[in-house]
Amino acid sequence: MRFFTLVWFILLFVAMPGFSQQKSRTCATELYQQTLEQLQPGIKLQQKQATEAAQQYLSQKRQGQQMRKAADLISIPVVFHVVYNTPEQNISDEQIHSQLAVLNADFRRTNADRINTPTHFADLAGDAGIEFCLASTAPDGSLTNGITRTQTSSTSFSANNNNIKRQDRGGAPAWDRNQYLNIWVGNISNDILGWATFPGMGSSSQYDGVVLFYKTVGEPPYNPFRSQFNKGRTATHEIGHWLGLQHIWGTGNESCSDTDYIDDTPNQYSPNYDCPTGTIVSCENGPYGDMWQNYMDYSDDACMNLFTNGQIAYMQAVLNSSRSELLTSVACNGGLRARFEAETDTLIQAGELVQFRDRSIGVKPSSWLWEFEGGNPATSTERNPSVTYKKPGIYKVSLTIANSEMSSTETREEFIEVTPNDLTVYPVPASNYIIIEQPAHVTLRQVELLNRAGQVIMTQEVTTRKAELKTTGLPSGLYYLRISSSEGVITKKVTIIK
C-alpha cells in the first residue's frame, strides 16, 4: 500500500502546474542566428562590423583613450513585451520586477550566490557597471510602466522565425532599439529557454533584442514555476549574447579549437549541464578546469554566478560602439532630449526646400523653437517645418523643445550645405591651384587641363562633387578646363598667373 501511495504522490507532484521536466539548458541564439542569416541577407557583415568596432574600442582603451571611469554606471532602459495565449503565460508585474532585480544583481555582482565563486576564479569575476531600469517613457512620449501585454491566438513561438516580434504574426512590435532593450516573453516551443540577437542588426532593428520562455522570468516567490531555470539567469545569459558574448565554450560544440574570444575564460570543450560539482578539466585547462559557474555556460540557474573581467570589458566595448545610442536614452528618467533630422539631403542647391523632422526622445514636449541660419523662414515653432535656402553657404540648425518643467536644445553646426546651381571654377585668376565645384547632386568624373593649342597637359580622375587641380609650375596664360561629370562634358576658360 505504501508503494502505491508513493507512486500516486510522485505522479501528482509531476502533474502540478508549473512543474518542469526539462533536463538541460537550451539557448537558441545560434539557431536564431541561422534564421536571421536566411531572412536578412548581409547580416553577418553587419555583425562583423560591430565586432570590429568593439575590438577597436578595446584597443583604444588599452592605449589610454576613451576611458570610462569605474564609477560611471550604464543604465539600460528595458521594455518587456509579454505575449500570452493563456492566463498562466500573462506573467505578473511582480515577476518582471523580480527579473529586473536579478539582472541588476548579476551585472553589478551583488548577487548573493557570488560567495559560491571558487577562490581560483574570484579574482577574474567583476562588476560590469551595467544596470537595467524599466522604461518610464514610451516611444511616443507617453508614460509607461515598461511592460506591454499582447494577447495572441498563437499557442507558441519558435526561433525559426520572427513571429513573436511581429504584430501581424501574433506577436508584439519592438520599440526603438536605440532607446530600449526589447525583451519578449512568451511560450517558446521545443523546450527552448530563450535566444538573443548579437550586436550589428542594421536594417533588422525591429527584431533586435531578447526572447524568454515565460517560466524562466524572475525568481521565487514571484516566479511560481518549479524548475532548475526559475531564478532569472536565462535573461542574464541571453543579455550577455545581446551584448556580444559567445557561449563560454566557443562558437561551436565539442571542440578545443574554437573560442569565445575572451582571454580570461578557460578554453572549454563543450557545455556543462545541470549543477556540476568540483573541477571539470577539458582542453588541458587544469588545474582549475572549466568555469561552469559562468553565466555564459549551460549550468542550472543556481550554479551560475559570474561574468569575468574580460567579458565585462567586451560588453562595455559594445555599449560604447555599436550600441552606443543607448547611452543617451532618457526612457527611464522621465527627461527629454531634442533630436532632429532632415528628410531630404543636407547637401542642396540654392533655392531647394528642406523638410525637417523632430525626432526628440523622452516625454512629450509642448513647444518647438527652430532656428535656421541662412534659411527662410529663419525661425519656426512648427514641429516639422519646411525651409528654403536661397544663398550658397554652410549653415547651422538648432532645435529647442520644452514642456512646463524642462527643455532641451540640439544644435548642429555646418548641418546644411548649399551650393550654387551651376558649375563653379575659382579662384579667378588662378595661381597654384584651381577648384572645380559642381552643384549638389552632380558628380565629377574627369578634369583635363588643356593649353591654348588644345593639348592635354594634365588629367585628373574624380569621383566627388568637388576637385582641386594643382597648377604649381605652369606658366602664366590662358588655359581650358574640360570637365566631365554625371551631367555631361563642359569646357571652361581659366587664366593662370604667377
From TrEMBL:
Residues 365-423 form the PKD domain. InterPro entries: Ig-like_fold (IPR013783), MetalloPept_cat_dom_sf (IPR024079), Peptidase_M43 (IPR008754), PKD/Chitinase_dom (IPR022409), PKD_dom (IPR000601), PKD_dom_sf (IPR035986), Secre_tail (IPR026444). Residues 150-171 are annotated as: Disordered. This is M43 family zinc metalloprotease. GO terms for molecular function: metallopeptidase activity. Residues 150-163 have a biased composition (Low complexity). The keyword Metal-binding applies. Pfam families: Peptidase_M43 (PF05572), PKD_4 (PF18911), Por_Secre_tail (PF18962).
